[in-house]
Write a structure and sequence with these properties.
Distance between the termini: 12 Å
Oligomer: single chain
Number of domains: 2
CATH architecture of the largest domain: 3-Layer(aba) Sandwich
Structural class: alpha/beta
Order of helices and strands: EHEEHEEEHEHEHEHEEEEHEHEHEH
Number of strands: 16
Helix content: 25-40%
Shape: elongated
Strand order of the largest sheet: 2-1-3-6-7-8
CATH class of the largest domain: Alpha Beta
Strand content: 25-35%
Length: 326
């Protein structure tokens, strides 16, 4: 069984993973009892690194901005760097002994037998290809850095599912696709029986093989709903990979209900907090109530603490992957 290192974006999964029998490791704190020094440098330490020699190790991280569940705020870039810190210390493990004032003795340790990385939410997933001259493909940059240190990366419902570089890495066995969609669909069948499944945009339609509407982006957070399908008298559930601001979702809901639909429900894998907080998520809960369903791939106070009844646990997916991976 793999030993599990939970990076900052996945510490909310501790209890679920322990119930599955996994040994869990998390980062220690610096002298100030914090993960960040006062100049903004990130501190990462896996104190029990000696226990990981010749073991199978899996690091789990969610590559998103911190929500209100976390006291210290991590940017996406902090999550990326923290993941690299953990990968590096496993790739070159050492034990450290203080032998005098500011004098230390270092002893090389055996590396883990295997190092896997699971990204419950891929960092920079919405920057997966350039659309203008000079833009950085941030998603590819992060994954290429990670792959310098680990054998493979499993990604849950990745946003860049159809871009060439992502497909190439999958074909090489370096990227493994995981999906919470089957878990969502199973729960939808229970909570919203006799409902028609739809997708809110062309990308989700292609990913899931569902009918739906089009979407024309007007900014990085706003879109215009396009197209028309018969919805009068129907119970509808829209399924997508992520919720960002929720603005497009709520406009779609208004459009659908005006067309005479009986019910509008929504399910998504990733519910993302914003840099400004979780007002976007609370607004969705206030508007949709029990007609909303998400997973806990991303840590948020809104869903992990306040509304667990609207949340599906991603640990069974991770557990199933680790028990069958070879």
């Amino acid at each position: 069984m793999h030993r599990i290192i939970l990076a900052s974006g996945a510490e909310h999964l501790t209890q679920s993973l322990e119930k599955k029998g996994y040994t869990i490791y998390t980062s220690g704190l610096n002298y100030d009892g914090r993960r960040f020094f006062y100049n903004g440098d990130l501190y990462t330490r896996i104190q029990e690194v000696e226990d990981l020699q010749n073991e199978k190790v899996c690091i789990i991280q969610s590559g998103n901005y911190s929500g209100e569940l976390e006291k210290e705020k991590f940017t996406t870039q902090d999550r990326i760097f923290e993941t690299l810190q953990i990968l590096q210390l496993l790739h070159n493990p050492e034990s450290v002994k203080e032998v005098g004032h500011k004098q230390y003795e270092y002893t090389s340790l055996e590396k883990p037998q295997e190092i896997l990385l699971v990204l419950t939410c891929m960092p920079s997933g919405k920057q997966d290809h350039a659309v203008r001259n000079g833009e950085c493909n941030s998603a590819l940059t992060a994954l290429e850095l990670f792959l310098n240190y680990c054998s493979a990366i499993a990604v849950v419902d990745a946003h860049p599912w159809d871009v060439g570089w992502f497909s190439n890495l999958k074909n090489q066995g370096k990227i493994i696709d995981l999906s919470m969609v089957p878990f969502l669909l199973e729960e939808i069948a229970v909570r919203f029986p006799d409902s028609q499944l739809l997708a809110p945009d062309e990308g989700a339609q292609a990913r899931l093989g569902l009918d739906g509407f089009g979407k024309k982006r007007t900014s990085s957070v706003d879109s215009e709903v396009l197209g028309d399908i018969p919805v009068e008298g129907e119970n509808l559930v829209f399924v997508d990979d992520l919720i960002l601001t929720g603005g497009t979702l709520l406009r779609t809901r208004e459009h659908i209900l005006k067309k005479g639909a009986n019910r509008f429900a929504f399910a998504a894998t990733h519910a993302l907090p914003l840099m400004s907080g979780e007002d976007n998520l609370r607004r969705l809960v206030d508007t949709l109530g029990d007609d909303l369903l998400v997973t806990n791939t991303v840590p948020s106070k809104t869903f992990v603490e306040d509304h667990p009844e609207l949340t599906i646990d991603c640990v069974p997916l991770i557990d199933g992957f680790l028990r069958t991976y070879s």
